[in-house]
Amino acid sequence: MGNKKIWIINDQDVQYATEHVLQILHKGIRLKRNDNDEVSVICVGVNREGEFKKLFQYGADRVIFCEQREGYSISLYVKCIATMLKDKLPDVILFPASITGRQTAAMLSVRFNAGLTACCTDIKYDGDKERYVFIRPAMSESVLAKITCINEKLQMCTIKENIFESRFVTNEITFNMEYFSYTEKGLDKNIEVLERKALDLKERVDIKSAKIVFVVGRGMKHSMDLCKTVARQYGAVVVGTKAAVEEKMIQENRQIGQSGISISPDICVALGVSGATQHMVGIKGAQVIIAVNTDVNAPIFEYSDYVIVDKGENILAELEK
Ligand SMILES: Cc1cc2nc3c(=O)[nH]c(=O)nc-3n(C[C@H](O)[C@H](O)[C@H](O)COP(=O)(O)OP(=O)(O)OC[C@H]3O[C@@H](n4cnc5c(N)ncnc54)[C@H](O)[C@@H]3O)c2cc1C
Predict the structure, then answer these.
(1) What would the pLDDT profile of 159-175 be if each residue is shown by its tens digit?
(2) Nearest ligand 1 atom, CA 274
(3) Does pTM surpass 0.80?
(4) What is the torsional sign of CA 18, 236, 241, 197?
(5) ipTM given for this complex
(6) Facing residues of 308 across strands?
(7) What is the dihedral of CA 289, 295, 299, 301, to 10 degrees?
(8) Rounded to whole angstroms, how far apart are CA atoms 31 and 304?
(9) Do 68 and 74 meet the contact criterion of CB atoms below 8 Å apart?
(10) In 160-294, which ranges are E strands?
C-alpha cells in the first residue's frame, strides 16, 4: 500500500483558487490517510502567484503548474494534463463538475481507460480493497450508489459546487511549486480560439443567492414575455425545468434539478411545472413553494406549500403591477 497521490484539476486558466476548487481541495485533504499522501492542484494557464498562494493556504501540498499563454482550448488542456498524467501517475483525480471539468474528465477517462463517476456527493477510501469509493444518488435519488473502479488503478470523479465546504488551513505556507512544460505541435492544433467574449453582464445573474425565483415549465411556453415582465417587477429571477431549456424558453445555465443547479430561495413560484423528481431535487431547499398548474393532479402539488389550479397566465396577469 504505497502513498497516494490525490490530484485536483483546476478548471480555470487565470483564477485558480475559486470557491469550487477550494471546496474540492478540502475534500482531497480529508482523503489523506497519513502525511505521506499528497494532495496536488493542477493548474494550466497564466502564472498567478497570488492564486497559488491561496491554494497553499487552503491546504494544497503541491501545485503542479503548466504555463500556457495562448488562452484556453480544450484540446490543448486535455493533451497537457494527459502528458502530466503519464509522467506522474496519480491514484485519484477530482474534477469540478463545470463544463470544462466535465469535458476534461470524460476525455481523459477514455484516453486512460480510467473509471469516472459523475457528480459525487461523497468519496471514501476502502483500505481493505485499496480503492476509492465514489458515492452519489442514483435512480431518482431513491438509492445511494457506491461506485468502485475495479479494472484500472486510476480513478476519477466530478464534483458539483457547494457539495463540500472549503477551509482555510494556514498562513505559514511552503510554496511547493512544480513547473511542467508542454508545447503543442502546430499540426496537432485542431481548435483555434478566434475570439474571447465575456458573458453579457445582464446574463450573469446570481441564481443561487436569489431570494425570489419564478420557475417556468413547458406549460408557460407561450407566456415567457409576461413571465419575465412580472418577475422583474418583483425582483425575481427566472429559472426553469429541463423541458423549458429544450423549448428554448430559458438558457441552459438556468436549468434547475438533477442535471442543472440546486437553489434554496425564500419563495419559489413554479408555473407550468409538472414536478418530476429530477426537477424537484433542485428546488427542495426552497422555504416556500407556490405551484400553479392547470392539472389538479400535477405531482408538484404534493411538494408545494400553496397550490393554485389555474393557468399560469391568469395568475401572472393578477400579479402584474
Ligand atoms: C437523467 C435525467 C435527468 C433530468 N434532469 C432534469 C433536471 O435537471 N431538471 C429538470 O427540470 N428536469 C430534468 N429531467 C426531466 C424531467 O424528468 C421532466 O421531464 C421535466 O422536469 C419536465 O419539465 P416540465 O415540468 O417543464 O414539463 P412537463 O412535464 O411537460 O409539464 C408541463 C406542465 O405544465 C402544465 N401546464 C400546461 N399548460 C399550462 C398553463 N397554461 N398554466 C399552468 N400549467 C400548465 C401541465 O399540466 C404540466 O403539468 C431529467 C430527466 C432525466 C431522465
Answers:
(1) 988 889 999 999 999 99
(2) 49
(3) no
(4) negative
(5) 0.99
(6) 292
(7) 30
(8) 39
(9) no
(10) 177-180, 212-216, 237-240, 267-271, 288-293
